[in-house]
Amino acid sequence: MSQPATATVEVNGHACRVWTKGQGPKVGFLAGLGGLPRWVPFLDRLAESRTVVAPSLPGYPGATGHTELDTHLDWVLAVRQLLDKAGLGGADLVGASVGGAFAAEMAAIFPERVGRLALIAPFGLFDDKEPAADPWAQRKDVLPGLMCAEAATWNELVAPPEGANSVEWPIEMTRASEAAARAFWPLGNTRLEKRLGLIEAPTLILWGDRDAILPPVYAGTFARAIKGAARVETIANAGHLAYLDRPEAVANAVLKHFA
């Protein structure tokens, strides 16, 4: 697969990588846990008919600056800056996992900056009756099977990309985990349910039927709380990061929603 174009924008004085590929109307993508150490087939499928813009969140692979963000408000404002500087103001937006929570926040708090919305197993909620798993409390050998339906899929994502320093790469991935923890620990709960009623954007909610991090019943909670038209679609044989497990199925659902 051909590589995306790479640019850099500055958020709070720190560099954040922005990858762009494709043609057609813009669609933004905020990645899930682990970020985007490499370009993935899901984004290639979207890029067949859309211009895909994938900015790296602070602290994730391709970006620095997460230590500047101490509160949830800090993170929300940083994500807004990132999307604006990446040229995504008003564009359709896809967010997965931790990125899905931020995408939902953008649609709720800055509705004029989001066109249509697609959320893939977003963080942000917690239900005592159906508790989420804590990804930061897992043994290293257990985590891959929680992230994806097939552990090898996660391992492939986080393996050192071409040209990466083998010594520094594990540190970079630890930094990404720390960044996510700063925003979502404990248990991914940001009280997002209080703001879902502000979302008027047409919203597609996708959930892997084998998600071992966030129970699939959370999808219904999102759909019922969002003010705008919202529907749920289950992705068969997919885990938490369904766009890695089933890139074609997830991309087809997203493109149909955005059509």
UniProtKB/TrEMBL annotation:
Keywords, ordered alphabetically: Hydrolase
One Gene Ontology molecular-function label: hydrolase activity
Family annotation (Gene3D superfamilies): alpha/beta hydrolase
Domain AB hydrolase-1: 33-247
InterPro entries reported for this sequence: AB_hydrolase_1, AB_hydrolase_fold, AB_hydrolase_sf
PANTHER family named in the record: HYDROLASE, PUTATIVE (AFU_ORTHOLOGUE AFUA_2G14860)-RELATED (PTHR43798:SF33), MONOACYLGLYCEROL LIPASE (PTHR43798)
Protein name: Alpha/beta fold hydrolase
Species of provenance: Reyranella aquatilis
